[in-house]
Amino acid sequence: MSFVLFVYILAALFSFFILGILLGAVFYEPVREKIIATFRLLRVAPKLHRSSANPILEPGLHPWTAEAVINPAALILDGRTHLVYRAIGHDGVSRLGYASSPDGVTFDDRLPYPAYAATNPGGVSEHRRRYSPVMYPSGGSWGGCEDPRMVAIDGKVYVTFNMFDNWNLRIGAIFMDEADFLAKRFWRWKGPFILSGGKQNKNNLPWSSKNRDKNWMLFPEKIGGRFAVLHTVIDEDPDRVGVVYVDSLEDLPEQEFDTVDPQKFHDQKIAWHIRVRSAGPPPIKTDRGWLVLYHAHDTEGSRYKLGAMLLDLLDPARVLHRAQAPVLVPDADYENDGKPGVIYACGATEKDGMLHVYYGGADKVVCVASAPLGIFLDELISGASPELAEKEAQEA
To answer: How many DSSP H helices and E strands does the chain contain?
Structure first.
């Protein structure tokens, strides 16, 4: 057998081998699904871009901010970006701090005292507790006001937050007039009002929240003349989220609806993730829908990554589009120097066509990432779930 003939035979065998792989991919469902998923991720996906100034806020010299400043709410009023952030002190208590900026990056106005604090959280003297990221994995805190979200509605500033007390969690809310907020008259907060723990979970579902209510937030405007509350981004139907409407926030505990404890809910393969943790910042209204960012885990385990979806403007419980890849992944040093692998966003703004997302990195510092909003939405929609797009077309 000549060398040339031998080469031809090898080439033919290799071709048959490749053909066999391709046929197997076509007819063997697990392989086919992996190939399809890979091509989906190669499509255009929206991305947020970190500021070179990150971290924009760090732990301070005051004891109440000494351990961490994280997870800020954000709002633009009177031409400035205002943050209400979660601060953790040496005593392991979470309080709400305040800072503002003319450009959304350089925060030249930061209060040396809390903008809001719970009174003696847990009913235990503070000297008996200390900050401990090991014993108290909730950012190292054991009690107080966590993870605020902030909106302005009808001339008032509303802040919702997690009321944390030794693993009992409820949703609290405070509000004040915009004029008082801008003047930093933070002693005029009204509240707190406890929004959860009432008649929710009437069906006693196995994944319902009995003792843990977290990360509820208000839409930034009334819908149909009523407050709209996004209380969960998890549902048995992956194309739905949980929204409830009330005339007054004080009426919310009397409303009967089911909400979800993400710790109890089963894993569910959606888009790029298998476990949803919570919504991020309050929804942002766009001409394409309500933009919602959310935290989720994929097969890498406990790393908090940021996803994005669009909700229907008329029916905000309906998911229109969902990004098929994370829009921000905790790869920067400051997102791992502390509790590793954490991006946790609680605030977002839109200014001059730019989307700015404010988040906590590694349960230690405050950061910001941005993108042109129009391009971000174009990429989200063009690379969104084909199943959702097909469903939307059928319903139309």
So the answer is: 5, 20
Q: Is 8 a domain residue?
A: yes
pLDDT score of 133: 76
**pLDDT band for position 264 (50/70/90)?**
confident
Domain that residue 9 falls in:
3-37
Closest to 373 (Cα-Cα) out of 75, 49, 82: 49
User: Dmax over Cα atoms in the chain, in whole Å?
Assistant: 95
Are residues 62 and 22 located together in one domain of the fold? no
Two tokens, residue 163: 């009321």
Pairing of strands 143-153, 93-101: parallel
Token pair belonging to 362: 């590694």
HSE, side-chain direction, 13 A CA sphere, residue 297: 14
What tokens were used for 259? 């909400």
Do 300 and 220 belong to one domain? yes
pLDDT of 341 strictly over 80: yes
Average pLDDT over all residues of the chain:
86
Q: 25 and 60 in one domain?
A: no
pLDDT digits (tens, 9 = 90+) for 46-57: 999 999 999 999
Residues 62, 32 share a domain: no
| CATH number, residue 117 | 2.115.10.20
d(CA 291, CA 310): 5
Residue 265: the pLDDT is 87
164 confidence band (pLDDT: 50, 70, 90): confident
3-state secondary structure of 262: coil
Q: Is residue 387 part of a domain?
A: yes
The answer to whether residues 239 and 270 touch, using CB atoms and an 8 Å cutoff, is no
Long-range contact pairs involving 125-134 (C-beta distance under 8 Å, separation at least 24): 126/91, 126/93, 127/91, 129/91, 129/92, 129/93, 130/90, 130/91, 130/92, 131/67, 131/88, 131/89, 131/90, 131/91, 131/92, 132/92, 133/338, 133/339, 133/363
> Are residue 27 and residue 127 in the same domain, yes or no?
no
> Is the bond preceding residue 192 a cis peptide, omega within 30 degrees?
yes
Question: Which DSSP string corresponds to 76-140?
Answer: EETTEEEEEEEEE-TTSEEEEEEEEESSSS---EE-SS-SB--SSGGGS-GGG----TTT-TTTT
161 and 32 inside one domain: no
HSE (side-chain half, CA atoms, 13 Å) at 83: 36
